[in-house]
């Protein structure tokens, strides 16, 4: 019996490929290069699940949440690894975790209020919010930036770090240029990540405020009844 590939299965495969890549990092220069290849595959699968969902009309709220969860897992496992080995600041995985937790919390409140992640009933109602978060160019650019960032760090790990680095010992200025490139890429990726989260925080705050107001109203009514 032929297995049918669904968007959710592709998302789970993407997460598995990403974890496999991170497991290979630090196990030798060639293993690092293999991890870079798997990283490209994981990012490519991020676009494939959405393509299948649109083409086969299999998009669902659960699938959208699973896709977001996969993104969070991939982002955090990569940045956590590179922070542990000293290639990026520890603040990077913290930043991505906090941003993801805040936006996902507000999305959850919006879904509770009856809003979806797309369409006319989407949580984001402003044109700039939809452009920054939900548009294909924004999602594609963010995926490309993450792929470039992770692959660059992986290549740096394979070529310049450790006793079996493929390029061996480099001059200080060359190594400094490579490190500068890593800093630029990681900060650009983090900056765009925060920029894409801004519309969710701005437009999602009303759901938090409304939910908090409802809770206060229930408590006040209960106290008056007593």
Offer a concise description of the structure.
The chain has 226 residues and is mainly α. It has one domain: Four Helix Bundle (Hemerythrin (Met), subunit A), CATH 1.20.120.
Number of strands: 0
**Main sheet: strands, sense, barrel:** none
Question: What radius of gyration results from the CA coordinates?
Answer: 21 Å
Structural class category:
mainly alpha
Classify the fold: give the CATH topology: Four Helix Bundle (Hemerythrin (Met), subunit A)
Number of helices: 7
Question: Any overview of this molecule?
Answer:
The protein is mostly helical. It has one domain: CDP-alcohol phosphotransferase transmembrane (TM) domain (Four Helix Bundle (Hemerythrin (Met), subunit A), Up-down Bundle). The protein contains 7 helices and no strands. The protein has helices spanning about 5-25, 30-55, 60-85, 90-110, 125-135, 135-160, 170-225. α4 (about 90-110) runs parallel beside α7. The longest helix has about 55 residues, at about 170-225. The chain is globular and about 60 Å long. The termini are far apart. The mean pLDDT is about 80.
């Amino acid at each position: 019996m032929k297995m049918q590939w669904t968007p959710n299965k592709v998302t789970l495969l993407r997460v598995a490929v990403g974890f496999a890549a991170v497991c290979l990092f630090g196990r030798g220069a060639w293993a690092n290069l293999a991890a870079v290849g798997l990283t490209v595959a994981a990012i490519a699968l991020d676009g494939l699940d959405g393509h299948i969902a649109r083409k086969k009309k299999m998009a669902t709220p659960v699938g959208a949440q699973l896709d977001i969860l996969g993104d969070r897992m991939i982002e955090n496992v990569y940045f956590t690894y590179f922070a542990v080995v000293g290639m990026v600041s520890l603040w990077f995985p913290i930043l991505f975790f906090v941003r993801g937790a805040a936006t996902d919390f507000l999305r959850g409140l919006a879904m509770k209020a009856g809003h979806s992640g797309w369409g006319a009933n989407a949580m984001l109602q402003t044109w700039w919010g939809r452009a920054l978060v939900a548009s294909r160019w924004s999602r594609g650019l963010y995926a490309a930036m993450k792929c470039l960032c992770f692959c660059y760090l992986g290549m740096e790990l394979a070529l310049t770090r450790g006793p079996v680095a493929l390029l061996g010992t480099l001059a200080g200025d060359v190594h400094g240029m490579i490190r500068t490139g890593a800093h630029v890429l990681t900060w650009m990726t983090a900056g765009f990540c925060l920029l894409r989260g801004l519309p969710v925080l701005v437009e999602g705050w009303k759901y938090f405020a409304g939910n908090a107001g409802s809770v206060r109203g229930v408590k006040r009514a209960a106290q008056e009844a007593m």
